[in-house]
Amino acid sequence: MLTQVAIIGAGPAGLLLGQLLSRAGIDNVIIEHRSLDHVLSRIRAGVLEQGMVDLLREAGVADRLGREGLVHDGVGLAFGGALHRVDLKALTGGNTVTVYGQTEVTQDLVAAREALGRPTLYEAEDVALHDIDSECPRVTFRIGGEARELRCDVIAGCDGFHGISRRAIPESALTCFERVYPFGWLGLLVDRPPAAHELVYAHHERGFALCSMRSAERSRYYVQVPQDERVEAWSDEAFFAELRRRLPAEVAAAVVDGPSIEKSIAPLRSFVAEPMRFGRLFLAGDAAHIVPPTGAKGLNLAASDIRYLHDALREHFLDHSQAGLNGYSARALARVWKAERFSWWMTGLLHRFPERNAFEQRMQQAELDYLFSSQAAMAAMAENYVGLPY
Ligand code: APR
Ligand code: PHB
Fold first, then answer.
1. pTM for the full predicted model
2. 141: Cβ–Cβ under 8 A, 6 or more apart, which residues?
3. Fewer CB within a 10 Å sphere, N or C end of the chain?
4. Residue ranges of domains in the chain, CATH in brackets
C-alpha cells in the first residue's frame, strides 16, 4: 500500500488530521489497533475551546456540534462552602467554551470519514514504524493475520500516551518531562439532569469534586480519590454521598441521584515529550503530551497540534516548502507548555495534597483568596480556561 500521510491512531487527533488532509486532497490512511466500536464507546470529557470549535467547523464536522453543543459563558468555582461564578465571557471580551462530549466529536469525525470513503484500518495488530528518519518511512502491521506494509512520505503519530509512535523515537533524541499526581479522579456518568447549568469545580478539605455534564439529560461527576483507590470500593450511593459533602449546599441539593452508566478511576499526570518530531515522524495529541483533566485541555491541545501539523503538511505537499514541518515541534510545544502550566496550576489550586506541609497548605489558601479578590487574577484564569490563541 502507498499513501502520502500514514496516521497512527483513530482518536480525535488522528481523525481530525485525516479529515483536514482529505479535504485538502492529501492522501492519507489511518491505522487503528482497536475496533471501531471500541473507539466510539470511549467516555471522555468534552469542553471545547473556541479554537477547536472553529477548527471542527473548518473541517466540515460541526453541524451537530452547532445544534447540540452547550455554549457556556461562565464556570463555577467553589471553596469555603461558597459558590463563585467566573464570568468567562465578560472577563475575556466575549469568549466562551462549548460542552460537547469527546465521544460525539469522535462519532462526527468517523461519520465524515466514512462519507468521504477514506480508508481507516481498524483492529490492526503489531503496528510498527520503520525508516522514520528516511524520506521513505514505512508502517507494517497485520490485519486478520495477514501481514501488510504501508509506504508513505510522512507518519503522523496520533496513537496516544500508550501508543508506539513516541517509543519509535530513539531515547537519545527525546527528552521527557513528567509529574504524576498523588491522587486520581473517580468519575461517574448518570442519566439525570446536571446539578447546575454550568460546570462547578469544588475545592474542599475532603478533596476535589467536579460537576459536569454531557447534555441537559446526562451528567458527569468526579471526586478526588487516593492514587491506589479501586472503583469496586465505591457504590453509587457512596459516590453521591461523598460528592454532596464536597459541594456548597445549594449545589449539593441540586444533585439528582441515579444508577451509574459508567464509573471509573483515572490517574492524573502532566507529561511532555520533546521534540514532537523525528525525521518524517510527527507526534500530535496525547502521543506527545498529557495534562491532568482539571483544566479540560487534553482534547483542545490535540486540536491545536492538528491545526499546526495540517498547515505544515499542506505547505509540504502543496507548496513544496519544508518551513512548516521544520517549525512544527517548536510551534506546537509553545502552546502545549502554556496549557501544561495552566492544568498544573488548576490542579494545585483545587486538590487536597496530603503530603503538603503547613506552609504549602497556606500557599494554596492564599492562592484561592487572591484569585477571588483580584479581577486581574480571575481574568488570567478565564483567558486560560477559554483557551489561549493558536
Ligand atoms: N497502533 C494503532 N493505533 C493505536 C496504537 C497502536 N500501536 N496505540 C494506540 N492506538 C490508538 C488508540 O486505540 C486510540 O484510538 O490511537 C488512538 C489514540 O487516541 P487518544 O488516546 O484519544 O489520543 P488523541 O487522539 O491524541 O486525543 C487526545 O483523547 O484520551 C483523550 O484525554 C485525551 O482528550 C484527550 C484526547
Ligand atoms: C468532563 O465533563 O468529563 C470534564 C469537564 C471538565 C474537566 C474535566 C472533565 O475539567
1. 0.97
2. 31, 121, 124, 125, 126, 127, 128, 147, 148, 150
3. N
4. 5-49+101-177+269-347 (3.50.50.60)
